[in-house]
Structure formats: C-alpha cells, structure tokens
Specification:
The chain has a single domain (2-234), classed as Glycerol-3-phosphate (1)-acyltransferase (3-Layer(aba) Sandwich). It contains 7 helices and 7 strands; from the N terminus they run ααββαβαβαβαββα. The protein is α/β, with parallel strands linked by helices. Strand 3 (89-94), helix 4 (103-109) and strand 4 (113-115) form a beta-alpha-beta unit.
Length: 235
C-alpha cells in the first residue's frame, strides 16, 4: 500500500506540473516546490530522510556544477528542491526521458541537456556546449557521471564529465552523495519499483571545489566524498 500511495501521489504531481509546462507556466520555483512535496510523500509513509551540508552552499555564488552519484528515480525529482530556490538548475539527462509521458514536458520546460549515453565523444561535446550555455545564463547544471543508476557506488563507472564542465566554465563543482534506494527498480516499469521505508534516504552536499589543472585531484576528492558519505548513511 505504501508503494502504491507514493507512486500515485508522484504521478498526480507530475501530471499537474506537466499541464503547467504545456501552458508555459512551469518555472524554477515550481520545480523546487515539486521536489519538496515529493520528499514529503516519502516522509508520510515512514521514510527517514537526512539532508546534510546545506551550509556549504551559503557562500557559493550561482551558477555551479552539481556532481552526484545516481541511484534511483528519486533524485531526478527532488534534487532541485534540496538545492533550493537560490540555485536555478537543470539536468544532464538521457534523451529517452524527453519521450516520457508528462515527465518529458517538465524536462523540456526546465531546458534539460539530453545525451545519448551511447556515444561518449558526442555526449561530451553536447554537455560542454550546452552546459556552457546554461551556466552563462545563470543556470546550474546537475550531472550524474555514471552511465546508469547503481545501488552500489562504483568509482570506475564515475566519469570526469562534470569536472570538465566546471573547469571549462570556471565555476565551482559541488559534490553530492546520495542514497535513494528506498525507491527500488521495477520489474515491469523500471522507474516504478517498490518503496521500502526501512531504507534511509540521504543527501550529503560537500564543499565547493574550484578546478585546477586537469581536475583529476578534484575528481578524486568528489569520489572520496561520495564514498565516505555513503558509509555514514549505510551505517
């Protein structure tokens, strides 16, 4: 019943927001409100939610590149709400998401950056070119450097795309470690798996990093931050 309750509430929220987007009324403020409401859907079924590190954003002047691990559908829905109204943000997404009923309208309305995830060189070109445009407009970019969602963080699958974008744009990179496997992967519909309130939901925001040289040291710092933060959440 908890799974059904959450999914129904999320679907209603997405349809409502997609209708706003279709009429041209969906904006960043709506995106932030949606993220906070969806977090409340999880609280209401007993999920324990921990958010730490917001103080690290107090002295960061937007825009920036947020770099996070990717675990479930949840973070794509709630991260703008967690980051807050001071950071107008969009996502680098797989282009197939734009074809999703209703949700695709929302992603289009927030000017997301679609990539194929099949051609790394082309994806790199798109993210750098389009990411720079968003950042020049004052829009922060949220990047999930993993090729796919993973419940176990694997540094080998965590590429340097976000760091390279931050370097090109001369903006800070802000690491985010997240655990969201309370929203499971579905057997029939991948994006609508079981909701498990026994699993904590965690978001840890790290201090901003200013990229020097080729950014490899900063990339390793982000990986270490994610690994250490996830240990805290699992413990």
């Amino acid at each position: 019943m908890k799974t059904l309750k959450v999914h129904l509430n999320v679907i209603k929220k997405i349809i409502s927001s997609a209708n706003l987007a279709q009429r041209g009324y969906y904006n960043h403020e709506e995106l932030v409100i949606d993220g906070l409401k969806i977090l409340d859907f999880f609280r209401n079924v007993g999920c324990k939610i921990t958010i730490k590190g917001l103080d690290n954003l107090k002295h960061v002047k937007p825009p920036c590149v947020f770099i996070a691990n990717h675990m479930s559908t949840l973070e794509t829905l709630v991260l703008p709400g967690i980051i807050g109204k001071n950071f107008k943000a969009t996502f680098v997404i797989k282009n197939s998401l734009l074809k999703y009923p209703f949700f695709g309208r929302i992603l289009t309305a927030i000017n997301s950056i679609p990539v194929t995830r099949k051609n790394p060189k082309e994806d790199y070109r798109i993210v750098i070119q389009e990411g720079l445009k968003r950042l020049e407009q004052g829009i922060s970019v949220i990047v999930f450097p993993q090729a796919a969602r993973q419940t176990v963080f694997d540094p080998a699958q965590f590429n340097t795309l976000g760091v390279k974008l931050a370097k090109k744009a001369s903006v800070p990179a802000v690491p985010i470690a997240l655990r969201t496997d309370a929203w499971g992967t579905g057997k029939i519909l991948k994006d609508f798996g079981r909701i498990d309130p026994s699993k904590p939901i965690c978001f840890f925001i790290g201090p901003p990093l200013y990229i020097e040289n080729k950014g490899m040291e900063e990339h390793l710092q982000i990986i270490r931050f994610i690994e250490q933060s996830l240990k805290k959440c699992y413990n």
